[in-house]
Design brief:
The chain is of the alpha+beta class. It has two domains: 1-155, Roll (Thiol Ester Dehydrase, Chain A); 181-335, Hotdog Thioesterase (Thiol Ester Dehydrase, Chain A, Roll). The chain is 21% helix and 34% strand. It contains six helices and 13 strands. It has helices spanning 9-12, 25-29, 63-79, 157-176, 230-233, 241-260, and strands at 15-20, 37-44, 88-98, 112-125, 128-140, 143-155, 207-208, 216-220, 267-276, 287-292, 302-303, 309-319, 322-333. Strands 1, 2, 3, 4, 5, 6, 7, 8, 9, 10, 11, 12 and 13 form a 13-stranded antiparallel beta sheet that branches. A hairpin with a 2-residue loop joins strand 4 (112-125) and strand 5. The radius of gyration is 20 Å and the shape is globular.
């Protein structure tokens, strides 16, 4: 079986994916023209997160719908949009948001998740798209409570290898010239990032690195953090997008506690929007810098519509002097 013929059962577990074609011939031809197609995905949310360890936080994780959406897009690209298997899929942007927090609270029973997805082809050449855009509405146990989206580009192998090689050389040259972030003074406790096992901690303690009057925190991503995720969430030698989401969550909890005094055990990453500017290379140091984003004029913490404190964060991932991803995120204090 081709690796893209279905979303990964190892990560997603038992699941169902239904194509809702826009034209009757799609039922017979099992392929479609280069127009928007709709899908419905459903699964049980896992008791344990299979990529980065079991979270002890009382919320379902944004990682599951984001990875479900990405894997569905890969399946649709090969199965319905005729994207050649020789083209390398690259996530160029991704986002997720919790729109109703109650739906994400863990209960005593297994919860069901459903995604209503619309997949739109981009950059069509000869009837075959060179990219896909997907937007999804997320429901848990029948309650609409979130959104997710992503863009994929499909690169010829030569172009992909050229981009990877150029990015690695740029990072290696800047690292050799001493363009690197401080070394982390140690690791946080697992409960500070929502885990119970220190092996699931992916970032070091923050260093205050701001030099222009703004409070900036720099985190070191633990070397080898991506090793356990490549077979599930990325190509064999790629640092997968799922790693950036989990690191953003751990960094977000630590930064919200450091900057605003949030309590990590009742904090949740409620919004995540990432743009990928290059390829992060396994084996090279990866750092994340964090600054607080939108602030009130009086300096007090922002609040959501329900009055709960929210801190807006701007994250930048670097390998040497090369930025590989920019992230806008929100961390909500559930109180």
């Amino acid at each position: 079986m081709d690796t893209f013929t279905a979303p990964s059962p190892t990560f997603l577990g038992t699941h169902h994916l239904v194509h809702r074609p826009a034209s009757p011939e799609a039922f017979l031809l099992k392929a479609t023209g280069p127009i928007r197609q709709n899908f419905a995905f459903s699964a049980e949310l896992p008791d344990e997160q299979r990529l980065f360890g079991n979270s002890v936080l009382p919320y379902h994780d944004l990682l599951f719908p984001v990875e479900s959406l990405r894997q569905t897009m890969l399946f649709a690209a090969r199965r319905y949009f005729r994207v050649p298997a020789s083209r390398h899929p690259v996530v160029t942007s991704s986002s997720a948001e919790i729109t109703h927090l109650d739906g994400w609270r863990r209960g005593g029973t297994r919860a069901g998740i459903a995604l209503e997805l619309g997949v739109t082809p981009l950059d069509i050449v000869g009837g075959v798209p060179h990219g896909l855009e997907c937007e999804a509405a997320v429901s848990i146990d029948g309650e609409r409570c979130g959104t997710a989206s992503a863009r994929l580009a499909f690169l010829a192998q030569g172009i992909y290898r050229s981009h990877r090689g150029l990015g690695r050389r740029q990072s290696e040259e800047s690292l050799a010239a001493g363009d690197d972030a401080p070394v982390s003074p140690g690791l946080p406790l697992p409960e500070q990032v929502g885990h119970r096992d220190s092996r699931d901690v992916l970032v070091g303690l923050p260093e205050h690195t701001g030099a222009d009057g703004h409070d900036e925190l720099t985190f070191t991503v633990v070397p080898g953090a991506a090793a356990g995720t490549r077979s599930e969430a990325g190509a064999p030698d790629d640092v997968p997008p799922a790693l950036f989401l989990e690191v953003s969550r751990q960094v977000g909890l630590l930064a919200a506690a450091e900057l605003r005094g949030f309590v990590p055990s009742h904090a949740v990453l409620s919004r995540w929007q990432a743009t990928f500017r290059g390829f992060a290379e396994p084996g090279l140091p990866l750092h994340c810098t964090v600054r607080e984003g939108l602030r009130r004029a009086d300096g007090r913490v922002c609040r959501d519509a329900a009055g709960r404190p929210v801190v807006e964060l701007r994250l930048s991932f670097h390998q040497g002097g090369r930025a590989v991803a920019r992230v806008s995120a929100s961390v909500l204090q559930d109180c």
